[in-house]
From TrEMBL, chain A:
InterPro entries: AAA+_ATPase, GTPase/Isobutyryl-CoA_mutase, GTPase_ArgK, P-loop_NTPase. Keywords: Chaperone, GTP-binding, Hydrolase, Kinase, Nucleotide-binding, Transferase. The keyword Transmembrane helix does not apply. Gene3D superfamilies: P-loop containing nucleotide triphosphate hydrolases. Belongs to the SIMIBI class G3E GTPase family. ArgK/MeaB subfamily. This is LAO/AO transport system kinase. It comes from the Bacteria. Residues 55-200 form the AAA+ ATPase domain. It comes from Halanaerobium congolense. It holds the Pfam family MeaB. GO terms for molecular function: GTP binding; GTPase activity; kinase activity.
TrEMBL record, chain B:
GO terms for molecular function: cobalamin binding; isomerase activity; metal ion binding. This is Methylmalonyl-CoA mutase C-terminal domain/subunit. It holds the Pfam family B12-binding. It comes from Halanaerobium congolense. The keyword Metal-binding applies. Keywords: Cobalamin, Cobalt, Isomerase, Metal-binding. Residues 4-129 form the B12-binding domain. Coiled coil: none annotated. NCBIfam families: acid_CoA_mut_C.
Length: 342, 129
């Protein structure tokens, strides 16, 4: 009996996988949800999809909230669609509210020009858990989309925290969007965004402070280039690419063609220098580490965060009987033993 | 981790009154759901395709133009054409009571007319499935 059920399950699963590979939106969407919800079914699906793993070309686009990422993407997608038969998927990540667990996913509003095109698939994704899990979900979503025949995948994130920077590190080409009112020199120095971009975009260049911001960005730029030369190994994946700064305005539809050209240049640069192939391995490595990290964290924290146990820890600390370090050390010694053969 | 509820909130058709839709979207977000908000002036085709791509558990459309009968009919026609899974649809906005039956016959599971409370809407969505 159970064998029969197994067989039936196997059969419908094969049909499901075939539908994903065939590019059917409903099945693609479903497999992304299963992945996000960490359903056991998702493991089976991913196992099959990884079997012939097509690495897509991944573009990351990041920048502060309200800098115009989605609007720019809307215009870029319009240009890219001029390429016949190119299928493009977008993963638009927005933050989950830590307080309610809910999320307001509104990136699609800005992509009205293209969302009817049959060659575009847009998926909004909330960052969900606190433990960096979004990175692995994003990567595996890209794997699903690639299996479904999307050759180019754009990941859009708000560039504020470490998580978002990490998401971008899964990309082959990284676009960093900034705006004239993004702050002064000090803000630029602070921002890690400046270190991750292949192409920098000063959007809203119709605003009065644009020229001043351009000067600031350019002067900061040269320092980064020198830094890259000094630490060549760490920037291995970036190779000898010279970052560029482009000015755009969505309002005036200005600079978009140059931007699309710059992305194409970067793609050609990656391909001609065999970097796309190297990236595949580097990104997979990051994905593996992300997965490991989020799985371990989740298990450990689940174990740690049990009401009575945690309450005892807290009482011990508050009464002065134990220090946080002592408790953590004990907890780790008890729960996390890894045999290391030397 | 249990499955998160995903809801699409969209304005269907040409009216520009989105206060209600935005408030409902915010309330659902604050109740812990993932809300995909597509803003003003969506066609029935766009709403259905978005719902499929986003794999939502519920479609909520807001209509204040008076064209709800035509628009909702189109929505269900598109859903049948594109999709073999029926996604529950709720309608909000200014809908005369006389039209409730017509909309329900099309397949609308619930109508929240003017005067509906946020609590009422939340209760309904939370109890889905």
């Amino acid at each position: 009996m159970s064998e029969q059920i197994n067989e039936l399950f196997q059969q419908s699963q094969n049909e499901f996988i075939a539908a994903v590979r065939d590019g059917r939106e409903q099945e693609i969407a479903r497999s992304i949800s299963l992945l996000e919800d960490k359903s056991p079914l998702s493991r089976e699906i991913m196992k099959q999809l990884y079997q012939n793993f097509n690495k897509p070309y991944i573009i990351g686009i990041t920048g502060p909230a309200g800098s115009g990422k989605s609007s720019l993407l809307n215009l870029m997608l319009k240009e890219w669609l001029k390429e016949p038969e190119l299928k493009i998927a977008v993963i638009a990540v927005d933050p989950t509210s830590q307080r309610s667990g809910g999320a307001f996913l509104g990136d699609r509003i800005r992509m009205k020009d293209i969302n009817n095109d049959q060659r575009i698939f847009i998926r909004s994704m909330a960052s969900r858990g606190k433990m960096g899990g979004v990175n692995s979900a994003v990567y595996d979503t890209a794997v699903i989309m690639a299996a479904a025949g999307y050759e180019m995948i754009v990941i859009e994130t708000v560039g504020v925290g470490q998580t978002e920077i990490d998401v971008v590190s899964l990309a082959d080409t990284t676009l960093v969007v900034t705006v004239p009112e993004a702050g002064d020199e000090i803000q630029i120095f602070k921002s890690e965004l400046m270190e991750v971009g292949d192409i920098f975009i000063l959007n809203k260049d119709d605003l009065p402070r644009a020229a001043k911001m351009e000067v600031l960005l350019k002067s900061n730029f040269s320092l980064i280039e020198t830094e890259k030369l000094n630490r060549k190994n760490e920037y291995e994946s970036k190779g000898s690419w010279q970052s560029v700064l482009l000015k755009t305005s969505v309002l005036n539809n200005h600079g978009i063609k140059d931007l699309v050209k710059a992305v194409e240049n970067h793609y050609n640069y990656l391909r001609n220098n065999n970097i796309l192939e190297q990236n595949k391995k580097l990104q997979l490595k990051k994905h593996l580490l992300n997965l490991l990290q989020s799985e371990i964290l989740e298990k450990i924290i689940l174990e740690f965060d049990q009401e009575d146990k945690l309450d005892k820890y807290l009482r011990d600390i508050l009464s002065g009987e134990a220090s946080p370090y002592q408790l953590i050390e004990e907890f780790i010694d008890k729960n996390l033993t890894i045999q290391v053969d030397l | 981790m249990s499955a998160k509820k995903r809801v699409l909130i969209a304005k269907l058709g040409l009216d520009g009154h989105d206060r209600g839709a935005k408030i409902v979207a915010r309330a659902l977000k604050e109740a812990g759901m993932e809300v995909i908000y597509t803003g003003l002036r969506n066609t029935a085709e766009e709403v259905v395709r978005t719902a499929v791509q986003e794999d939502v558990d519920l479609i909520g459309v807001s209509i204040l133009s008076g064209a709800h009968k035509t628009l909702v009919k189109k929505l269900f026609e598109n859903m049948e054409a594109e999709n073999n899974r029926t996604i529950p649809v709720v309608v909000g906005g200014i809908i005369p009571k006389d039209d409730y039956n017509y909309l329900k016959k099309l397949g609308v599971t619930k109508i929240f007319g003017s005067g509906s409370s946020i609590k009422e809407i939340l209760n309904y969505v939370e109890e889905l499935r």
